[in-house]
Amino acid sequence: MKLKKILSRFQKLHPKEIDLSLDRIKKLCNKLGNPQDKIKSISVVGTNGKNSTIQACFAILKDANIKCNLYTSPHIKKINERFIFNNEQLQDDELAEIFEIVEKKNEDNPITFFEILTACYFYKAAQFPENINLIEAGLFHRFDATNILKENMASIITSISKDHLDWLPENEKTIKKIVFEKTSSLLDSNIIVAKQNNRNTLDYIKQTISQNKSKKIFFNDDFSYSDIKNNSFYFKDKFGKLKLPKPNVLGQFQLENISTAIATLRLLNLNVNDQNIVNGIQKIDNLARLQEIKSGKLKNLVKKNLFLISGDHNEDGARVLNEYLKSLKCKKHIIIGMMSNKEHEKYISHFKNISSITTIDIPNQSNAISGKKLKEKFKNKVNVKFKENIEQAIKSVPLNDGDLLLITGSLYLCSEVLNLN
Question: What string of H, E and C letters represents the secondary structure of 288-299?
Fold first, then answer.
């Protein structure tokens, strides 16, 4: 209850959810003694795969007995997920204590919710100067609250695609502009560029970081992986070739994220050995990213059928998700809820040969599109219906033995599924 009250106060400090500027976070962190200058960090920017790449790095580093702090967003079930220190999620009372200290230093000055949370993270992270911080950039990066570090160990650029277009001027809603916002202010250290979904995006990245003095390594040019065969795949970089077991996360696209994580850790020479990599990629905790639900209240409604949730919410996320679905020899049923600011028609266009689609409202999200409006936007798809809530939607799906049920379209929706389950 105490934690909820503090968070409620945080949300009232600024009239906007997002206000792209670094001034407020810099002022607050200066009052806190600039804790961001006292940490070792790996920054992760991009559109898709940021959290998955961080979780792969984390799993490998943990196996190597290397202590980490993690800052990610958004959270799925509870805000504590954003605050991991010494490899452990903070408990409510510990988090409340940090929040109160930072709140007092802020002195009720205007600051966005994400900015003050970021200041809280930096404040606590400075207490563990030897830990490696895995820090996920938020909306973009150039004016993101995480972009006040003076130095870091590396910057990872994951797959970049169109998303959050409502935050860009009408004439700048382009992939080139998004690449600029995400990569133009990267620090001079090491830059690891993951597989991109097309050549133009990669070319824009190369152009934007061309004057950056970092050591740069690129997927395909400097590291690569093979597809899974016989429950194993190969990773290759300048340090050699690794035969690796199938990871514990689903989807071909996860090999891209895992390979980027491996390339980063090998480049940084962090005393991570081959066995740490083998062990780590089989213990990745990737909540709501193509996650299988194996038990619980909602799983009981799905019975013995495969039940997946995935928070993919943009066109590129839909593309890679559908690539995974195409690999499954079964009937697929999808329940979808989305936020209002997404490109709904482009998102659904990637799903092929789907037996049924059910749109729903996302509970507790005022910025979500209603399920009824979403159904109208999907009118070119056959077998689309609307149900008001998650349980009704699941019960309405005509599941037969061996079918798949997927709930997707938003991390907020996945959060509701996990909490209900």
Answer: CCCEECCCCHHH
> 10 Å Cβ neighbour count for 18?
19
The C-alpha atoms of residue 148 and residue 145 are separated, in whole angstroms, by: 7
**What is the extent of the structural domain holding 375?**
291-420
Beta-carbon contacts of 413 under 8 Å, excluding residues fewer than 6 positions away, are 311, 336, 337, 338, 360, 362, 390, 407
Position 167 scores a pLDDT of 67
Structure tokens at 92: 């409510």
pLDDT digits (tens, 9 = 90+) for 365-403: 989 999 999 999 998 887 899 999 999 999 999 999 999
At 329, list the tokens: 């020899």
CATH number at residue 334: 3.90.190.20
CA end-to-end span of the chain: 22
Q: What are the two backbone dihedrals, phi and then psi, of residue 153, each rounded to the nearest 5 degrees?
A: -80, -35
Which amino acid would we find at residue 265?
A: L
Q: Are residues 276 and 303 in the same domain?
A: no
Same domain, 161 and 235: yes
Q: How far is CA 266 from CA 87, 196, 252, 302, in A?
A: 20, 21, 22, 42
Judge whether 324 and 227 are in contact, CB under 8 Å: no
215 shares its domain with 296? no
Q: Among 173, 110, 184, 108, which residue's Cα sits nearest to residue 346?
A: 173
Six token digits for residue 320: 């890679």
Residue 361 Cα distances to 5, 55, 339, 342, 410, angstroms? 27, 29, 10, 15, 11
Residue 148 confidence class, pLDDT cut points 50, 70, 90: very high
Provide the Cα torsion 366, 50, 124, 8; round to 10°.
0
Of 280, 304, 337, which residue sits at a domain end? 280
In a domain, 285, yes or no: no
H/E stretch holding 267: helix 253-268
Q: What is the pLDDT of residues 327-339, one digit of tens each?
A: 999 999 999 999 9
Instruction: Tell which phi-psi region holds residue 303, choosing left (phi > 0), alpha (psi between -120 and 50) or beta.
Output: left
Q: Which of 211, 153, 161 is nearest to 181 (CA)?
A: 161
